[in-house]
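Need C-alpha coordinates for this chain, all 243 residues.
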Amino acid sequence: MTSLVGDPYNQAGTGTATLELLESATRYNNWLVSKLTPFLGERNLELGAGHGTLTALVANERKVVASEPAASGRSVLTHRFASNPKVLSVVKGVDDLPENQAFDCVYSANVLEHVADDAALIKQAAAVLRVGGHFVAVVPAGRWLYSPFDQAVGHHRRYGYSDRARLSAAVAGGSAPLKLVAYRHFNPVGAMGWFFRMRMLRKSEIPATDIERLDSLVPLLQPLDYLPFGFGQSLLFAFVRTS
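Here are the C-alpha coordinates for all 243 residues:
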Protein backbone atom coordinates (compact mmCIF):
# COMPACT_ATOMS: atom_id res chain seq x y z
CA MET A 1 0.00 0.00 0.00
CA THR A 2 1.34 3.44 -0.86
CA SER A 3 1.14 6.35 1.51
CA LEU A 4 -2.40 7.65 1.92
CA VAL A 5 -1.24 11.13 2.86
CA GLY A 6 -0.31 13.52 0.09
CA ASP A 7 1.47 16.81 0.63
CA PRO A 8 -1.20 18.96 2.32
CA TYR A 9 0.70 22.17 1.69
CA ASN A 10 1.23 22.16 -2.04
CA GLN A 11 -1.73 24.34 -2.99
CA ALA A 12 -0.45 27.63 -4.43
CA GLY A 13 1.72 28.24 -1.39
CA THR A 14 -1.26 29.21 0.80
CA GLY A 15 -0.98 26.22 3.11
CA THR A 16 2.78 26.56 3.44
CA ALA A 17 2.46 30.21 4.44
CA THR A 18 -0.15 29.31 7.06
CA LEU A 19 2.04 26.50 8.39
CA GLU A 20 4.93 28.92 8.85
CA LEU A 21 2.72 31.48 10.61
CA LEU A 22 1.38 28.88 13.04
CA GLU A 23 4.93 27.91 14.01
CA SER A 24 5.15 31.11 16.08
CA ALA A 25 1.75 30.65 17.76
CA THR A 26 3.17 29.23 20.99
CA ARG A 27 0.01 29.32 23.10
CA TYR A 28 -2.11 27.88 20.31
CA ASN A 29 0.28 24.99 19.68
CA ASN A 30 0.45 24.18 23.38
CA TRP A 31 -3.36 24.20 23.41
CA LEU A 32 -3.42 21.61 20.62
CA VAL A 33 -0.90 19.41 22.40
CA SER A 34 -2.94 19.63 25.61
CA LYS A 35 -5.83 18.07 23.68
CA LEU A 36 -3.63 15.20 22.51
CA THR A 37 -1.76 14.62 25.77
CA PRO A 38 -4.33 12.41 27.58
CA PHE A 39 -3.98 9.86 24.77
CA LEU A 40 -0.21 9.93 24.29
CA GLY A 41 2.07 7.21 25.59
CA GLU A 42 5.75 6.54 25.93
CA ARG A 43 6.17 5.81 22.22
CA ASN A 44 4.21 7.83 19.65
CA LEU A 45 3.86 8.28 15.90
CA GLU A 46 2.92 11.65 14.43
CA LEU A 47 1.19 11.72 11.04
CA GLY A 48 1.87 14.74 8.85
CA ALA A 49 4.48 16.32 11.12
CA GLY A 50 5.06 19.27 8.78
CA HIS A 51 8.01 21.28 10.08
CA GLY A 52 7.86 19.70 13.53
CA THR A 53 5.99 22.32 15.56
CA LEU A 54 3.98 19.79 17.55
CA THR A 55 6.72 17.18 17.34
CA ALA A 56 9.00 19.44 19.35
CA LEU A 57 6.40 19.91 22.09
CA VAL A 58 5.54 16.22 22.37
CA ALA A 59 9.23 15.27 22.34
CA ASN A 60 9.86 17.36 25.44
CA GLU A 61 8.63 14.39 27.48
CA ARG A 62 7.89 11.48 25.11
CA LYS A 63 9.45 9.54 22.28
CA VAL A 64 8.18 10.34 18.79
CA VAL A 65 8.56 9.02 15.26
CA ALA A 66 7.70 11.84 12.87
CA SER A 67 6.13 10.94 9.53
CA GLU A 68 5.84 13.54 6.79
CA PRO A 69 4.96 12.86 3.12
CA ALA A 70 6.68 15.95 1.70
CA ALA A 71 10.41 15.59 1.02
CA SER A 72 10.97 19.25 1.94
CA GLY A 73 9.27 18.70 5.28
CA ARG A 74 11.32 15.58 6.02
CA SER A 75 14.47 17.55 5.31
CA VAL A 76 13.43 20.22 7.82
CA LEU A 77 12.50 17.59 10.41
CA THR A 78 15.75 15.66 9.99
CA HIS A 79 17.83 18.79 10.46
CA ARG A 80 15.71 20.18 13.29
CA PHE A 81 15.77 17.03 15.42
CA ALA A 82 19.20 15.65 14.54
CA SER A 83 20.38 16.05 18.13
CA ASN A 84 17.11 15.20 19.89
CA PRO A 85 17.20 11.57 21.10
CA LYS A 86 13.46 11.54 21.75
CA VAL A 87 12.69 12.00 18.04
CA LEU A 88 13.48 8.43 17.08
CA SER A 89 13.27 8.79 13.31
CA VAL A 90 11.72 10.69 10.41
CA VAL A 91 9.81 8.67 7.80
CA LYS A 92 7.60 9.34 4.81
CA GLY A 93 4.58 7.36 6.02
CA VAL A 94 3.31 4.34 7.90
CA ASP A 95 4.49 2.01 5.15
CA ASP A 96 8.07 3.16 5.67
CA LEU A 97 8.23 2.05 9.30
CA PRO A 98 10.35 -1.00 10.16
CA GLU A 99 8.36 -4.18 10.67
CA ASN A 100 7.01 -5.10 14.10
CA GLN A 101 6.84 -1.52 15.32
CA ALA A 102 4.14 -0.91 17.95
CA PHE A 103 3.12 2.51 19.24
CA ASP A 104 1.19 3.64 22.28
CA CYS A 105 -0.39 6.42 20.25
CA VAL A 106 -0.69 7.59 16.66
CA TYR A 107 -1.72 11.24 16.50
CA SER A 108 -2.26 14.02 14.01
CA ALA A 109 -3.37 17.64 14.01
CA ASN A 110 -4.98 19.27 10.99
CA VAL A 111 -3.96 16.44 8.66
CA LEU A 112 -6.91 14.08 8.07
CA GLU A 113 -8.96 16.72 6.26
CA HIS A 114 -6.32 16.61 3.50
CA VAL A 115 -6.76 12.86 2.99
CA ALA A 116 -9.36 11.66 0.49
CA ASP A 117 -9.87 8.33 2.28
CA ASP A 118 -9.40 9.27 5.92
CA ALA A 119 -10.88 5.99 7.22
CA ALA A 120 -8.29 4.00 5.26
CA LEU A 121 -5.48 6.04 6.82
CA ILE A 122 -6.87 5.49 10.33
CA LYS A 123 -7.08 1.73 9.70
CA GLN A 124 -3.54 1.74 8.37
CA ALA A 125 -2.36 3.55 11.50
CA ALA A 126 -4.30 1.17 13.76
CA ALA A 127 -2.15 -1.71 12.49
CA VAL A 128 0.91 -0.19 14.19
CA LEU A 129 -0.86 0.49 17.50
CA ARG A 130 -0.45 -1.84 20.45
CA VAL A 131 -3.67 -3.21 21.93
CA GLY A 132 -4.95 -0.49 24.23
CA GLY A 133 -3.15 2.20 22.24
CA HIS A 134 -4.91 5.26 20.87
CA PHE A 135 -5.41 6.97 17.55
CA VAL A 136 -6.21 10.64 18.18
CA ALA A 137 -6.73 13.50 15.77
CA VAL A 138 -7.56 17.19 15.83
CA VAL A 139 -9.39 18.27 12.67
CA PRO A 140 -11.29 21.32 11.37
CA ALA A 141 -14.92 21.17 12.46
CA GLY A 142 -18.23 22.25 10.97
CA ARG A 143 -19.36 21.56 7.44
CA TRP A 144 -21.13 24.92 7.63
CA LEU A 145 -17.69 26.52 7.96
CA TYR A 146 -16.26 25.05 4.74
CA SER A 147 -14.87 28.03 2.81
CA PRO A 148 -12.85 29.00 -0.27
CA PHE A 149 -9.79 28.92 1.99
CA ASP A 150 -10.48 25.28 2.92
CA GLN A 151 -10.67 24.46 -0.76
CA ALA A 152 -7.51 26.43 -1.54
CA VAL A 153 -5.40 24.47 0.96
CA GLY A 154 -6.76 21.09 -0.14
CA HIS A 155 -9.31 20.27 2.55
CA HIS A 156 -11.59 17.44 1.43
CA ARG A 157 -13.93 18.15 4.33
CA ARG A 158 -14.57 19.77 7.65
CA TYR A 159 -15.86 17.30 10.23
CA GLY A 160 -19.36 17.09 11.68
CA TYR A 161 -21.49 14.72 13.72
CA SER A 162 -22.20 12.43 10.75
CA ASP A 163 -18.48 11.65 10.54
CA ARG A 164 -18.65 10.12 14.00
CA ALA A 165 -20.83 7.24 12.81
CA ARG A 166 -19.03 7.00 9.46
CA LEU A 167 -15.56 6.60 10.95
CA SER A 168 -16.70 4.41 13.85
CA ALA A 169 -18.28 1.92 11.45
CA ALA A 170 -15.29 1.97 9.11
CA VAL A 171 -12.69 1.08 11.76
CA ALA A 172 -14.70 -1.28 13.97
CA GLY A 173 -13.65 -4.51 12.25
CA GLY A 174 -10.56 -6.13 10.78
CA SER A 175 -7.38 -7.33 12.43
CA ALA A 176 -6.84 -4.04 14.31
CA PRO A 177 -10.32 -2.94 15.43
CA LEU A 178 -10.85 0.49 16.97
CA LYS A 179 -13.51 1.81 19.35
CA LEU A 180 -14.42 5.49 19.63
CA VAL A 181 -13.66 6.94 23.08
CA ALA A 182 -13.83 10.71 22.46
CA TYR A 183 -15.51 13.04 19.96
CA ARG A 184 -15.78 16.66 21.02
CA HIS A 185 -15.66 20.16 19.57
CA PHE A 186 -13.65 23.07 20.91
CA ASN A 187 -13.04 26.77 20.22
CA PRO A 188 -16.60 28.04 19.52
CA VAL A 189 -15.37 31.64 19.37
CA GLY A 190 -12.97 30.68 16.59
CA ALA A 191 -15.87 29.07 14.71
CA MET A 192 -17.83 32.32 14.69
CA GLY A 193 -14.78 34.28 13.59
CA TRP A 194 -14.10 31.76 10.81
CA PHE A 195 -17.73 31.97 9.64
CA PHE A 196 -17.57 35.74 9.38
CA ARG A 197 -14.13 36.06 7.79
CA MET A 198 -13.89 32.95 5.62
CA ARG A 199 -17.53 32.24 4.75
CA MET A 200 -19.12 35.68 4.69
CA LEU A 201 -16.15 37.75 3.53
CA ARG A 202 -14.68 34.83 1.55
CA LYS A 203 -11.09 35.62 2.45
CA SER A 204 -8.48 33.39 0.83
CA GLU A 205 -5.67 33.69 3.37
CA ILE A 206 -5.02 34.07 7.08
CA PRO A 207 -2.98 37.20 7.83
CA ALA A 208 -0.23 37.17 10.43
CA THR A 209 -2.21 39.60 12.58
CA ASP A 210 -5.04 37.05 12.90
CA ILE A 211 -2.59 34.35 14.05
CA GLU A 212 -1.12 36.75 16.62
CA ARG A 213 -4.60 37.69 17.83
CA LEU A 214 -5.63 34.05 18.17
CA ASP A 215 -2.48 33.24 20.10
CA SER A 216 -3.06 36.11 22.53
CA LEU A 217 -6.66 34.99 23.13
CA VAL A 218 -5.88 31.35 23.94
CA PRO A 219 -5.93 31.86 27.75
CA LEU A 220 -9.48 33.25 27.40
CA LEU A 221 -10.63 30.61 24.92
CA GLN A 222 -9.43 27.52 26.78
CA PRO A 223 -11.95 27.71 29.66
CA LEU A 224 -14.79 27.59 27.13
CA ASP A 225 -13.73 24.02 26.27
CA TYR A 226 -15.54 22.83 29.39
CA LEU A 227 -18.90 24.29 28.34
CA PRO A 228 -21.30 22.24 26.16
CA PHE A 229 -21.59 24.50 23.13
CA GLY A 230 -21.87 21.56 20.72
CA PHE A 231 -19.84 23.27 17.99
CA GLY A 232 -16.39 24.73 17.49
CA GLN A 233 -13.73 25.61 14.97
CA SER A 234 -11.94 22.34 15.73
CA LEU A 235 -12.85 18.84 16.76
CA LEU A 236 -10.92 16.13 18.59
CA PHE A 237 -11.69 12.46 18.23
CA ALA A 238 -9.91 9.42 19.64
CA PHE A 239 -10.12 5.67 19.14
CA VAL A 240 -8.63 2.87 21.21
CA ARG A 241 -7.41 -0.40 19.70
CA THR A 242 -9.42 -3.18 21.31
CA SER A 243 -7.63 -6.34 20.14
